[in-house]
Specification:
alpha/beta; D-Maltodextrin-Binding Protein, domain 2; 2 domains; five-stranded mixed β-sheet; globular; disordered N terminus
Length: about 350
């Protein structure tokens, strides 16, 4: 490199050239990771934390992370804009918190789609590489790193006794936006959108009667519930770890490679860990004296019939908004069957 040529350049330009040539490759890079979930959540333990640790190890300590869980860096609904403005570098979030900006991802939350979270993650990744990535993510300037589909959600109730589907009528239940919200309206429940971080206060104050939620989420958020349903559930939640394209474009190739490789591993450890945790969490709820509600054969038949119509109605709603809802539902079906 010609030193006289460098001497005539501004300091900023010099630093840029040196960095691109790897001269400053050992400088520490500290990235801010933000999410709305409480500390210790299984999305941290099996997903975000292992991913960050793997990236730090692969870059020999060059890349470090500052982690801001539980909405410490901003409210759940603001995390996308915080990343786009550069306040956060990496975000772990639920797609439903940003349903106005990425509405098509809600197709993954339709009830009865996946046998388990690992199947869900595989389908999610296929879609992110295609229609979903183009319509929901590229348009928002973000790059999906780790896709996750949570274990099946169930009804959890603080005080209202649940024995049959009729008992859901009129219940104020926290739901995610989109397919889950549509599903609960079909059972004449009253869906209430809110981040999981607000659930404890809302339940204790009586603002809601309960939620459509995971068993692990009940324990992690210390929700005071007396009844939880089992077996057939009411959809799920799509979750992602992403980085903005603007931030990504500034990273050296070596760091990009480390992030991608760590993401592949984290995707698998996360889906496997969530499955194990959900089984263990249900057992803990039993031991704590929570009543486990099992649907009758008649209720199951009714649930299956009602929920079979959710995807089609969700697609019609998206189509009316000028979004490719029908195309998205077909893409999900094709991804599930390997087409």
């Amino acid at each position: 490199m010609n030193t006289r040529w460098l001497a005539r350049m501004s300091m900023a330009a010099v630093l840029s050239v040196l960095t691109s040539h790897g001269v400053l490759a050992q400088d520490k890079l500290v990235l801010r990771a933000a999410d709305p979930f409480p500390p210790g959540h299984y999305l941290h333990r099996y997903g975000l934390k292992p991913w960050m640790e793997a990236v730090t190890q692969a870059t020999q300590g060059r890349v470090q992370f500052e982690h801001y869980p539980a909405e410490q860096l901003g409210k759940a609904k603001d995390l996308l804009s915080l990343a786009q403005s550069g306040v956060a570098d990496v975000v772990l979030t639920g797609a439903a918190y940003h349903s106005d900006k990425m509405p098509l991802t809600s197709a993954l939350e339709t009830p009865g789609l996946f046998a388990d979270p690992c199947q869900g993650a595989r389908v999610y990744q296929k879609l992110a590489d295609g229609l979903l990535g183009e319509k929901d993510y590229a348009s928002n300037g973000i790059r999906l790193l780790v896709p996750a589909v949570l274990p099946t959600y169930h009804v959890v109730s603080a005080n209202r006794k649940i024995q049959t589907l009729k008992d859901l009528e009129g219940m104020k239940l926290r739901t995610l936006a989109g397919a889950q919200e549509l599903t609960m309206r079909k059972f004449k429940a009253v869906p209430v959108r809110m981040p999981s971080a607000e659930l404890f206060e809302s339940i204790t104050r009586g603002t809601v009667d309960g939620a459509i939620f995971s068993y692990e989420g009940v324990l992690n958020n210390k929700l005071p519930v007396k009844y939880v349903t089992s077996e057939l559930g009411f959809g799920t939640g799509a979750v992602m770890i992403f980085i903005t394209e603007a931030r990504w474009s500034k990273l050296p190739d070596g760091i990009k490679k480390a992030m991608v490789e760590a993401a592949r591993t984290a995707t698998q450890t996360l889906c496997t860990g969530m499955m194990q945790e959900e089984v263990a969490s249900l057992e803990k709820l039993k031991q704590a004296g929570v009543t486990i509600v099992r649907w009758s054969a008649e209720d199951k038949k009714e649930m299956e019939g009602v929920m079979a119509t959710v995807a089609e109605e969700w697609a019609a709603q998206m189509d009316k908004r000028g979004k490719p809802g029908t195309e998205m539902v077909k893409a999900v079906q094709n991804a599930r069957t390997g087409r």
